[in-house]
Amino acid sequence: MNPRTAFPLPDRTTSLPRAPFHFSPYAAEEATAVLEGEPADLFRRLLADQESETTFLTARRVLAAFLTTAEPQPGTDAEAIAAQVRETRRALEPAVTALRTAGTETRDLVLRQRAPLALLAGCWLDTVSQAATQPSVIVNRLFRQHFRLQGEGIPQRGLLARRRRALVELGVHLPEIEAADFLARTEARPLTALHATFPLALSRLPASFLPELIGVHYAVFALGIDDLLLGTEPLLPETEVRAVLTEYLAFTEDSPTGPEDRRRLLAAVALMLRLETEHIGMLGELAAWHDGLTLDAKVAQIVARHAPFAGRQHRSVRMGDRRLSDWLDGDTPDLAAFVAALRESRQLKVRGDGSCRFLRSIKFGGPMFGIFDEREAATFTAWAEAIAAGEPADLDFAPNTAGDLSAEHWARALRTTAPDDVVLRTADSALDDREFFHRIVNVEHFPHILAAARDRAEVGLAEAELLFTHGAGGRLTDAEYFDYTPEALMERVDRIYWDKLVDPYQPLTEIPDRDEVVFHQSTYALGSLIDGSWAHRVGNLGRNHRQSDAMLFAIYADEMGRGDIAKNHITLIHHVLASMDIHLPHIRQDEFRDQGDLPDGLYGFSIHQVCLSLFPDTLYNEILGYNLGIEMFGLGEMRLHEIQKLRRHHFDVSYEEAHLSIDNFSAGHARQSADIIVSYLDEVRRSSGEEAVQREWRRIWRGYASFAYFIEHQLVKAAREWPPPPPAPLPADRADDVDLVI
Q1: Closest listed residue to residue 118, CA positions, set 37, 177, 184, 205
Q2: Residue 382: CB atoms within 10 Å
Q3: Which among 672, 677, 670 has a CA at the least distance from the CA of 699?
Q4: For the chain, how big is the Rg over CA atoms in Å?
């Protein structure tokens, strides 16, 4: 191979090559419908769906709509960018301080409104580390910060949990961000939902928009609006995010795409400063509107919140000449008329004993107790007292239009912006393994491959069930099926460890020659070049609420060296290959399809692994089982023999030694992988019962079996031929010997 096409280390990539994004016509229709719908629905689609090409296309169009409006400011060094951000922070600080110190009700409203943006901060880093980007130096710098934002394997220490605790301490209680009613509970304005779609879209296409991601990452954490508003210390200080920015800009100096990458980064910084300024302005509008509300208007707001739940059971309740249900029917009830009528109703009249029928009805024992929260009840009490004191009505309610002009601008941009790098075509039905692998590694540019990738994963999983019956004969695995209990799982993995991986070990007495060792290593290399990829999409925003998610994410972080490029397993395997004089292009590159060092026949294993990784929600169980298989594979006889062979020929052994250590069965990845399964199924048992546990377990074990299927070639061949053919008829002169056949 021409050494000039080799992939160099350290990898100072500043952007991936620009390329078209391929989608099916059907995805285009769906994405258009999503973008023309309500902002809240667009937010939920981008947050909740990470497996469909429609989401990828929606994200591409959202990014186009926002980024085409971005005008980069002059100055390309880190200090100039930092100065721009500091200037914007100084300009916004008085407004943010005023919002933080506002009255309790106003501050509560503002904090709830800001929550969607505060709680998704950093989501753009969720999948920046992936097969297409590793082992980039900048990606690893970002991943180290991502790992910290995620709590370093303990979600309670992460940014999301810290901000939720800060909100609770300030009296704001919200459901999880992925909850169906999250936006409703925050009372999110259209502008808030639309602003939130930009970082969510970036989180879906981070490899393709690395310069923009660097700019957004620096601008958001250096500006620090949410820490300023919540009164919290930054988890990522400005100096640390600036260090990444500085290093990235230094890399662009030697990059052929450097000038364009810097322009893209500066445009993203300018965009985020604009968006944050715009949103703080909207929060100011919202606070001013709320502070200007009369008691009548506040009552109208409470009625509007609860009106959709005033059901048919209220038909017998009358106010004036109309039933209550008639007053509140429809999408836009006449709140001014309703409040005016309620003011004059007998429910608000003060009785001789000083009591009020309405206030009594919302207290304990009353027919409306529990409908209104404490703050709403206090508003009703103050209102009733004001009416009793003779205060006149003020029914000229000012509508809440905070942010609506800007929201309409962004909504129009989303509807009308059509990126020119989108290609609509049906995915090819017949691809060789090299081309298929290229497309799933570069899935951001080939989302139309997702349906085929799902089919490929399902076929591999179904075929692997062959080992449910025959798996005990595996050389390094035992995929024979068994009913799950925590004890049964631990007993099985313990037996695999001792009987198949450790006890059979004997040092090699003969070492193969150099060429044979190189060839044998090459058969594993493709899988090693995507090490950890099966788990790279687990634990993303909106789906990191299970303990098993955090545990699996921590394993992935270890595979990537927790952001330390020297410990990154992709770096290690490149060093091993280089020691054998194998110099490969990066697996994302077009040139990799034509490399001649790695055998064609072993692409299936790596394809299966990447296909699984693309479906972290619907194939979550299978990923847990696959993870157990691959982490145990790093132990015992096989690794020890490889180290012995590599050392004999003076090859690099760092990759083999790292796995032999980190995958250890005492407390390492092998043990953790079993613990992850126990943790997940324990949660299933508590929520859904034992029958659900066995159903979920079967899927987990087929994931393990799918790993064994690619490792145990001789066993699979024998199992496919089972049952053995009947014996040939005995010659006539040996017919009496039939009883001797066993």
Answers
A1: 177
A2: 13
A3: 677
A4: 31
pTM summary value: 0.93
Q: Which two tokens stand for residue 538?
A: 């687990």
For residue 350, list its beta bridge partners: 356
Helices 53-67 and 25-35 sit at what angle, rounded to 10 degrees? 60
Question: Between vectors from CA 445 to CA 444 and to CA 449, what angle results, nearest 5°?
Answer: 85
CA distance 277 to 89: 9
The answer to whether 559 and 552 have CB atoms below 8 angstroms apart is: no
668, 671, 676, 677 alpha-carbon torsion, rounded to 10°: 160
| Alpha carbons 204 and 127: distance in angstroms, whole number | 8
21: which strand partners? 422
Q: CA–CA separation, 592 vs 530, rounded Å?
A: 13
More confident residue, 318 or 560: 560
The residue written with tokens 């193969």 in the block is: 512
Q: If DSSP states are collapsed to H, E and C, what string results for 477-543?
A: CCCCCCCCCHHHHHHHHHHHHHHHHHCCCCCCCCCCCHHHHHHHHHHHHHHHCCCCHHHCCCCCCCC
Q: Find where tokens 């799950």 sit.
A: 484
DSSP-derived secondary structure letter, 350: B
State whether the Cα torsion 385-390-394-395 is positive or negative. positive
Does residue 596 carry a pLDDT above 80? yes
Give yes or no for residue 216 having a pLDDT over 70. yes
Q: Give the distance from CA 669 to its chain's centroid.
A: 22
Token pair of 292 as six digits: 């200007």
Which tokens in the block code for residue 398?
């000012």
Burial of residue 712 (number of CB atoms within 10 Å: 0-12, 13-18, 19+): buried
* Segment 527-550 mean pLDDT: 94
Say whether 349 sits in a helix, a strand or coil: coil
HEC string of 164-185 equals HHHHHHCCCCCCCCCCCCHHHH
